[in-house]
Amino acid sequence: MEFRVEDAIHWFTVVNDKIQENKENLTTLDQVIGDSDHGINMARGFQEVVNKLSTQEYEEVADVLNHVAMTLISKVGGASGPLFGTAFLKFSQAVKGINPVDYDSFTKGLEEALQGVKQRGKAKLGEKTMIDVWSPVVDVFQSEKGFEDNLFIEVAREAMENTKHIMATKGRAAYFKEKSIGHIDPGSASTYMIFEALAEVIKGRK
Amino acid sequence: MKKIINDPNIVVQDMLKGMVAANPATIKQLPDTTVIVRSDAPTINKVGLVSGGGSGHEPAHAGYVGKGMLDAAVAGEVFTSPTPDQVLEAIKAVDGGSGVFLVIKNYTGDVLNFEMAAELAEAEGIKVEHVIVNDDVAVEDSSFTTGRRGIAGTIFVHKIAGAKAEQGATLDEVKSVAEKVVANVRSMGMALTPCTVPAAGKPSFNLKENEMEIGIGIHGESGIERKEISTADEIASELVTKILDDGVHVRGDDVAIMINGLGATPEMELNIVNSKVNEILNEKGIHVYKTFIGEYMTALEMAGCSVTLLKLDDELKTLLNLSSEAPAFRV
Ligand SMILES: Nc1ncnc2c1ncn2[C@@H]1O[C@H](COP(=O)(O)OP(=O)(O)O)[C@@H](O)[C@H]1O
Ligand SMILES: [Mg+2]
Questions:
Q1: How far is the CA of A132 from the centre of ligand 2 (A)?
Q2: EC no. (chain A) (predicted)?
Q3: Domain containing B296: what range?
Q4: Which residue in A78, A170, B84, B274 is deepest, having the highest Cβ count within 10 Å?
């Protein structure tokens, strides 16, 4: 795998398409176990990411990731803004100076991103947060030797679906206690879209 | 949705403009931000006080900016916490060399965004401390979960920490008095009707004509119980009982109370609630030192109220009584 600046730009363009398309869906998920703003927050953030992506020049993948991180941090708000922002900031730092990004470095970047989310949000696996998708995705990267798009999408989707069965103990959904069971975590749904977009971009390029 | 707005996407900017227009001598908006600061900020050698959160809780928090209370308030989108860059601008604008103190309500979004801002400010050489307000007894007090929400009790933190800072206290002294307030303040709310976030266009939950929700959060978060509406006396007693069950306020204590309207509840009803709250506290031998009735921490046009009890010692009484020029809390 060789992941270049154009791939990174393509990645976030597709992410934005998916988020805009699913803005209502994400907000509806957040309506059930949150405060109905997740789709609005994500749509505002990624629209801004894409607006700027087309107007700037990037030397390496890390620069694109840094730009994505800073934009999300300043535009999304809520819990998801600092969390996704921290994820891409750590990812960016991990792959700095590596261009194009190879499979192992990409894996390292995702590991660091996950660590960042965990540290910032003080949550762990199984609390019905985006970590429940980030974590299994990082596991697949670690256990494979190269990018397997079908396996990867399958794992991410299943992880998202699985958040249904978890009782939330972190984030706003925690106030719903047992009532949070039976519903997909909104942040896990948007995390899934980010990785689905990644798989499509890498696959389309093969 | 029926609202007096121009465009759901610019309600926060439009509101801030109106607030500044109403108080041009005392507050100003930092250009290109959603930050309201005292017009004379920063106050040299005074600890700067910053609070904020999602919009839709007016007069919280910009209404509490003024001498004796906050130095700055950061407004997020409606019900969405503000971003770190905005909070950072507020911190920089009010740092008078003695450090900046952040009052944060306990919501994951608020905590994360304010913490990031504090890290950025510290990287720029500004000393920052914070307190996290978690007064809502409707949520279980637990360190394994998100824990209790911050609601109307936050206003007492603004007032008392603000008065302390105005006296020239150090950052650590402001922090310790703020922590004292947090340890002694408890609240709980209830709602009769939901509210509609302008950008969402429809209510975030529904309550039947004859239903109420006890323990609801100020963004409509799930409460303790949804049931048939009862009398003001029963509602007041349910809220106060749950607060007293927490064990902070006991016989012989002096307390300040706040009966807070959530946006669509007439003062008449708040006073009816207050009457029962007083009666119960009297029976329990808890002395009401000071009462605040009105809209302090709202939830858009939600109908309902919250009750807050703050246990007072001599220091807290003195600070509570010191003058405040904040438009929404004049003493
Ligand atoms: N402590 C946490 N750690 C990791 N992810 C979290 C945490 N708290 C919340 N989240 C994620 O954030 C999502 C909610 O985001 P959003 O609705 O934008 O913010 P808010 O909850 O502040 O309204 C949740 O669905 C969850 O995936
Ligand atoms: Mg939300």
A1: 17
A2: 2.7.1.121
A3: 185-313
A4: A78
